[in-house]
Design a protein that fits this description.
Shape: globular
Strand order of the largest sheet: 2-3-5-6-7-8-9-12
Largest sheet: 8 strands, parallel, barrel
CATH architecture: Alpha-Beta Barrel
CATH superfamily: Divalent-metal-dependent TIM barrel enzymes
Mean pLDDT: 92
CATH class: Alpha Beta
Number of helices: 8
CATH topology: TIM Barrel
Length: 303
């Protein structure tokens, strides 16, 4: 038996009103251990407009060496680990991918998030082949830099579930290509049994993102529309899901990515969600021990 060694961080993408500096200060004050930084062009930020997670996000690091060196220095001084960079990288943009891999290495060999293609734009067969060609061209640079690429489980992509993500990841060693297991995205598309998913991903499981979704009826025959909500108010039973993750022996990063804007402001979210997720994970019970993880690179069926 061993003591649980999960680490708790946040995704800066979900905190658009905060400056990177203020986020770092607050993470250190609250006792978080790390952060995954949204990486995007910051030249078009507009302080006069409402801050927005995707379109006007202040909590962003520009994709250049000076910006990454600066944010790493600030995080190091605050005792925080940059465990991932999260850019919006088009599949096939090899030159930008190579630049981002170098920046991830500069950030302390952080993981680099990738999204897979949209199945509505092309057939699955073509999209899968295009993703594989892209990975084959960038994996050598990542391996040389000690950077793990991570494929996010994300709605509206050919990797909308853990099992679909494994159909790409299984062709590469886990240290080259892992899977970012986003539990919140599963409420929109791709939800599978957590225990089964963990066994299927095996050693390819990198880190976990946590958020939740609520649904509202649109009218007879029109289905339901989803919206982000606080982690404890959505359709996902996160306490149960995170307990399953804990009991599996998982010992990597759990990253809170709460995009809800209606319940509380970004500063309040940081304190509230830290207490909530630590409770769900049992991190405040020092007497709890867990069995060793039994994940291997080949703990899955072939396709």
């Amino acid at each position: 038996m061993r003591t649980l060694d999960m680490r708790l961080g946040v995704s800066s993408a979900s905190l658009p009103s905060l400056s990177p500096e203020s986020l770092i200060d607050e993470l250190a004050r609250l006792g978080y251990q790390g952060v995954e930084w949204r990486v995007a062009d910051t030249r078009q930020l507009n302080p006069a407009a409402p801050w927005h997670a995707r379109d006007n996000n202040r909590c962003t690091v520009a994709p250049d060496e000076a910006s990454v060196q600066r944010i790493r220095h600030l995080c190091d001084a605050a005792g925080l680990t940059i465990f991932a960079l999260s850019p919006y990288l088009a599949v096939g943009d090899v030159q930008q991918a190579l630049r981002l891999i170098d920046l991830a290495a500069l950030a302390g060999q952080a993981r680099l998030r990738l999204w897979a293609p949209d199945p509505e734009r092309e057939s699955y067969t073509l999209a899968c082949a295009r993703m594989r060609r892209f990975l084959d061209l960038i994996v050598p640079r990542a391996q040389a830099n000690g950077v793990q690429l991570v494929l996010e489980v994300h709605q509206r992509t050919i990797c909308a579930s853990p099992s679909l993500a494994m159909r790409i990841a299984e062709h590469y060693p886990p240290q080259q290509l892992g899977i970012l297991y986003d539990m919140g995205n599963l409420a929109i598309e791709g939800r599978e049994n957590v225990k089964l998913s963990l066994e299927l991903m095996g050693a390819h499981l990198a880190h976990v993102q946590v958020k939740n979704v609520a649904y509202r009826a649109q009218g007879p025959g029109l289905g339901w529309a989803w919206e982000w909500c606080p982690p404890d108010e959505g359709v996902l039973p996160l306490r149960q899901m995170l307990s399953t993750l804990r009991d599996s022996g998982f010992d990597d990063w759990v990253s809170i990515e709460d995009f809800c804007t209606s319940a509380c402001d970004d500063l309040d979210k940081l304190a509230r969600n830290r207490a909530l997720i630590r409770d769900y994970l049992g991190l405040d019970n020092p007497g709890v021990t867990f069995p060793p993880a039994k994940r291997t690179a080949h703990d899955h069926c072939t396709h």
